[in-house]
Amino acid sequence: MAPRKAPDAGRRSDRSRRAIYDAALALVGENGYRRTTIEGIAARAGVGKQTIYRWWPSKAAVLMEAFLDMAARAAGQTAPEGDEDADSRNGGEYGIPDTGDLAADLKLVLRATVDELNDPLMEAPTRALTAEGIVDAALGAEFVEKLLDPQLALYVTRLRAAQEAGHLRADADPRTALELLIAPLTHRWLLRTLPLTHAYADTIVDYALGGLAPRP
């Protein structure tokens, strides 16, 4: 008789971790941040509460890691090994594309942002964590540090490259300039005043770049 193969503990842990991520995101979307509990996450994931506490110190830590994992998967994971530059040219986690056409590159990225914000799987947990981050300063700071700042840094890099190429006013502050692109999308999404569409994203880019174009 062939010997029985020992269970793969690493694979089992990965499955459990993924189940916990999915459960945390689902519950915070359904019930909100404050009504989501470690006990509820454990029950939904089919794991013991002690398993969660072994890996994370708090509910906030579970949700933050789950959200960051979801954002990473939505961004397309990573570039092919040894070709980070290709991912930068095509968009994704490593950077905003730089085709030489700033407007086209920004429209591509903002359209992808619109799709993410409109995705039901991302919208509910994003809204819940955004709202909780307003009243919970520590959670809000972690949300900004771990998720928002790395994404905004990609815009700064692309806008600085545009300045160096003469496609953007030399006196423009890239950090302020990116807010002209991001803030309108966020405002419309948060308030749900009007539909969030690709056409709106394109218009934002056109309006923003009209004010940022080099002046004689």
UniProtKB/TrEMBL annotation:
Keywords (A to Z) from UniProt: DNA-binding, Transcription, Transcription regulation
Protein origin, superkingdom: Bacteria
Domain spans labelled HTH tetR-type: 14-74
DNA bind region: 37-56
Database matches in InterPro entries: Homeodomain-like_sf, HTH-type_TetR-like_transc_reg, HTH_TetR, Tet_transcr_reg_TetR-rel_C_sf, TetR_C
Annotated region described as Disordered, given as residue ranges: 75-95
Protein name per UniProt: TetR/AcrR family transcriptional regulator
Species in which this protein is naturally found: Streptomyces rhizosphaericola
Upper classification of the organism: Bacteria, Bacillati, Actinomycetota, Actinomycetes, Kitasatosporales
